[in-house]
Amino acid sequence: MSGAGVRLAVVGNPDNRRVTLFQEALTRAGAGAARVVPWREVLCGRAEFAAGELVRLESPGEDCAVERMLRGVEDATRVEGSARWYERFVAAAREVRERVRAAGAALLDDADELAVLFDKRRCHGVLREAGVPVPFSPTSGVGAVVRGWDDVRAVMAEHRLPRVFVKLAHGSSASGVLAVDTAAGGRVQATTSVHREPDGRLFNSLRVRKYTGEAEVAALVDALAPDGLHVERWLPKASLDGRSADLRVVVIGGRATHAVVRTSRSPMTNLHLGGARGDLDAARAAIAAAGGSWEHALAVCERAAACFPGFSRVGVDLLPGTGWRRFAVGEVNAFGDLLPRLTGLPGSGAEHGDTYDAQVAALLRRIGSERHVYA
């Protein structure tokens, strides 16, 4: 980053869109460019850093070769292998930390916090202990261990939970997520993007589908369980234009800077699964009409982000309850900042740029406030 008198390295994949957008933001700020250290170099033990560099961690996604190395399966679209992915990715992030320290560089993102962010059970437990509103979960922190459908059924019965989300403990982008609904008479169904082949292999799909009947749902859960499962109450969401709605709020440097409403006719609002961006002004109006507070909603997100002070940015999934008065945090995502072409919230200080512009600005402020001199 010659313009700012500092050198910056990004551990990511050169073709990753997040890396590209961050580089473009550096250019707009007149801050030069960052050197990209590919994750595959880290995984092969060849990554090198230089004294005085600031090192940023980026998502290992969008590189099929890296996915195969982490997951241990040839087809990167397979669902199975998330526990192996987590173990190898966290180990790689900690390897980066040690190499950065040895080189006399500085890591911008805490590897231990990354390990918590990518474990839904641990992350939920941290948020709950900090008083952040979250859906009830019997697996939170060091809670119940779920080894298969029988255990899911047992915790649902024990805690009177007729509707739950069953999630891979280390999944992302809704991979392996099941919205399970039970009713009187033994009816069981699950809504999910998981596609199950006749031979039992599981694949991620861009089409949300329903599995009906307890035997089908049990087979899915039992196949996912070896990678670890997190179970939480399925909270009824607010609606916008007749569609279920939630929000992704990006928090940078402790402040909520960008937000997008996501709407869907299915329980999963992820945009790549058919969800659509909703009208943020309409959501804010619905909150105000219900007697709620938009400022309170953002404050909930900032409280969640404050649980991870060592990570430079997070994306918070905020769940508005029916009526738009109450909010809970569904997840906190380490790399949840990909909201292209979206400018910042009024009053956030990021009104004229995207999430990467805001991150570069926060980085430059940090450098200035610490008054470090970099070679």
From TrEMBL:
Xref: SUPFAM superfamilies: Glutathione synthetase ATP-binding domain-like
Gene3D superfamilies: ATP-grasp fold, B domain
Organism superkingdom: Bacteria
UniProt cross-references to InterPro entries, sorted A to Z: STM4014-like
NCBIfam families reported for this sequence: fam_STM4014
Protein name: ATP-grasp domain-containing protein
Species, as recorded: Nocardia yunnanensis
